[in-house]
Each structure stands twice: as structure tokens, then as C-alpha cells.
Write a structure and sequence with these properties.
The complex is a heterodimer of chains A (145) and B (110). With 145 residues, chain A is α+β, with helices and mostly antiparallel strands. Chain A has 5 helices and 5 strands, in the order E-H-H-E-E-H-H-H-E-E. Classes of the chains: A alpha+beta (145), B alpha/beta (110).
Amino acid sequence: MESYSREFKIQKNDIGNAGTVASLTKRELKRRGLTRDFVKTVTIGIYEAEINVVIHSYGGYCVVKINDDIVDVIFQDIGPGIECIDSALTPGFSTASHYAIENGFGAGMGLPNIQSVSDEMKLTSSKEGTRLHMKFNIDGDCYES
Amino acid sequence: MKVKDILSSNTFELITDKSGLNNKIIGIFASDLLSHVMGNASESNILITVLSNINVLGVASLLDLSCVIFSHNIKVNDEIVNKANELNIPLLKTKLPTVETILILSKMGI
């Protein structure tokens, strides 16, 4: 099937639109005939990453690329960066604001969820920004029979 | 079991229009933290929560949940109800606390 590539802009604290990248990617994955389980896996990873950019960063963007072998997703924001990546990867650790918590986020499960659903996750961060690269491999079992 | 089947008990008040009432129900998930819902709930689950905000609908839609039940008589604003109607997600309300809601649904055979 033809490859898919789409870029999304993500605004700081735009909680009302959080989930747009996940929702549109879900639609594309379903269109391509991928299984519900695979679609759910990718959707969870993207949603969590999207929420992270909305509630923790100054804003950023996301690039989703899909071909027959892989779903490749990059989230890049413009800061303020993650102080300690090891802590951020610990389930339950959270630096979320009251605003985020009031909206149901800030459980400290975002990055651990992403780590558990993706086949590969690379996270780099500095004060200038955080970059999260995740990959989901597509094999024969990922397609509806 | 479908969403319309649990409405017959009078325990639950439907606050959205009649769309999605034929959604199939398989199991219950209760949480007020969206990452827990996102990471652990399954398709066609009922979500029981006291978290009344728009992001609940995002998660319900992404996971294809059957419906959302707001427990403890939580206030749900019109923005959420309108958005749920748009997304065809049934929203139900109950005065019962979350645990009692689960027990009643369990007695119904869910």
C-alpha cells in the first residue's frame, strides 16, 4: 500500500484538541486493514506522547509515517526539557501541573505506557526540547485476515 | 448485553441522545486517571469514572468503549454531552458510588 506521512502541530495546554493525532492515525491504520489490537497499541503510544507535549511542553509537532513494514512516529517539542529521563520513565513518577491533573492526566504512566507498547522508543531531551521517536513494527499478523 | 439493556434498571440516567445504545458491552473498567484507562481498558468496556471532562470522550472514542457512566452524581456539562452526541458515545449518570455501580452491573451479568 502507498506510504503515508503527515505532520501535526501541537499547542501548549490545548487539552480540548489532545488526541487528534491519535484519532487520525487510528483512522489511517484501520483503513490499511490492520488488526484492532495493533491499532490499539499504536493509538495508546501516540495518545500518551501527544498528551505529554500538550501538558508538559511549550508546544511542538509530530510526524507520523506509515508504510507496509513500520509505523514511525516522532514527537518534537521546543522545551523546557525533561530534567531526569530515568525518573520520567519510572511508573508513577509525575511532574504534572494541577491543570493537567484536574483534566485526568498526570498519573505518571505516559512514558512507561509508551515504552511497553512500542517496539522501539528513543527519548532525548535538553532545555531546548524533547524528542521522542517510537517505532511499531508491522508483520503479517498485524493485518486482519 | 447492550447499552440499552442496562438502562432498563432505572439506576442509570441517559444524558446523551439515543445514539450508540446498541453498542455491545464486554466488561467494566473503573478509573479516574486517563493513562490508566488508556493503558488498561479494552474495547467495548463500560468506563465508570468521576472524571467529568472532554478528554474522557477522547479516550472512550480511541478505545471504542461501549459507554461512559459518571458515578457519584457528578455534574456533566453541556459541552461534554454535545461532544459525546457528535461522537456517538452514550453517557450515563448515576447517584451511586463507583463500587456499588460495579456491583449492580456485575449482578446484571456483565
